[in-house]
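Field reference: "sequence" (input) and "structure" (output). Example, FAD-dependent oxidoreductase:
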Amino acid sequence: MRINEHPILDFEKKRKRKVTIYYKGQPIEAYEGETIAAALHAAGIRVLNYSRVRKRPRGLFCAIGKCSSCLMTVNGIPNVRTCITLVEDGMKIEENKPILPANINKKDKKKRAKIVKGDIIVVGGGPAGMMAAISASDTGAKVILIDESPMLGGQLVKQTHKFFGKRDQFAGIRGIKIAEILRREIEKRENIKAYLRTSAVGIFQDGEEKLVIGVRKENELIEFKGKAVIVATGAMEKTIPFENNDLPGIYGAGAIQTLMNTYGIKPGEKALIVGAGNVGLILAYQLLQANVQVQAIVEAMPKIGGYFVHAAKVRRLGVPILTRHTILKAEGEEKVERAIVAEIDENWNPIPGTEKIFDVDLIAIAVGLRPSIELLQQAGCQIKYVRELGGHVPVRDRWMETTVKGIFVAGDTAGIEEATTAMLEGKIAGLAAALRLGIAGEEWVKEIEKTEKELEEFRSGPFGRRVIEGIKKLLEGSK
């Protein structure tokens, strides 16, 4: 199930040293640098655990550590998120047993948390977070960058398509290359310290400082202290209700991109995609690049939601796009074997007699994202529901500062858009945080104003009108 030939990506070159992990005592070949869930998928293992009450099979869904579908017991430790935990030679993996082992090391309970100090703490290492860290560091600020994934880049590390926009906004460059460019910028700056595989679990006020509690590699507690925090935790996949929508083999679109484009693993042989926005259309093309058959794309709306250029490309390759259709049911014992879709009427009800059956082992849910705002809620930031921005989002001002002084936001956390706007917002947040701390001089205000104009230009197209309306609602709420 590993991809060895790809028109863009060279996985043979990317793969590191072979290691052996043990699943239920059986040896499985893996590669350093890949996650447990990815290695299990490469070995054909789709069922990762079972639900507690009804014992229904569970499989990978988000692949970014934001759902509970991939929890397993690793080396005796329960509830490990296998989608973001890297393999290690000799690692022992079992179905999840959510009880602490009896022989837990009591001395570990007495360990004091490590303290790390900086000026600005950035939570999230995707396009918004990386650009925020880079921009803040350019003013002379000491920046701490936290991300729970094993690598920086966020969604960029799985995006093989070329970006639109201007040259200054990486137009014509693939997302995977943009991630490399930003990583190099971070690595060469001595005033940025990155902590990977580190989950931020709380933001608190500690006197004059902000305190971010982080857990590194599941067992190390760290207290990050700074004067400002930029939250760029991105978003997570939405899903839709249909019968058996929890079967292994049903993934969020981003999880499929992670398996294919980051780790070089085929997620299945025959796919059905639900959602014809830009993500669903691009995913169809990427699946074809990985030699996965795409049976169809179904879209409940009367027309596609993505760019025409993306739709035209997949149609030329023989992929039908069925508008005014929805998925009714997934079928299979332990994993997906079939999908049943049907046409819907103007009241969104299935039309009897229009059912179509697709023999697939992979269903991709590409129906949109919702902002990850949990940390901001916990920190006391005002939250508002804004449909145009993807759901509940933090109220913030023009410079991305929330209603809690010293806490800023950027990227999909502030409202669902594209990676380009995430980077521009990250730049504004990074510079604004440094300005309001008195680290940056007034000359940086012009750079913020320039970036605001670039954002306005990028949002001037038809897809940006909705976002502009949403931002107006937010700015009104911040007054």
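The first strand starts at residue 18 and ends at 23.
The mean pLDDT is 93.
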